[in-house]
Amino acid sequence: MHYDVVIVGAGHGGAQAAIALRQAKFAGSVAILGDEPELPYERPPLSKEYLAGEKAFERILIRPAAFWDERNIAMRTGTRVVSVDPDAHSVTTESGETIGYGSLIWAAGGSPRRLSCEGNALKGVHTVRTRADADRMIDEMGDVTRAVVIGGGYIGLEAAAVLAEFGKQVVLLEALDRVLARVAGEPLSRFYEDEHRAHGVDVRLGVAVDCIEGEGTVTGVRLADGEVIPTELVIVGIGIVPAVEPLIAAGAQGGNGVAVDAQCRTSLPDIFAIGDCALHANGFADGAEIRLESVQNANDQASVAAKTIAGLDAHYEAVPWFWSNQYDLKLQTVGLSGGYDQCVVRGEPASRSFSVVYLKQGRVIALDCVNATKDFVQGRKLVTERLSPDPTRLADADIPLKELA
Question: CB under 8 Å, gap of 24 or more: what pairs does 354-359 form?
Answer without folding.
Answer: 354/191, 354/397, 355/379, 355/397, 356/184, 356/185, 356/187, 356/188, 357/382, 357/394, 358/185, 359/388, 359/391
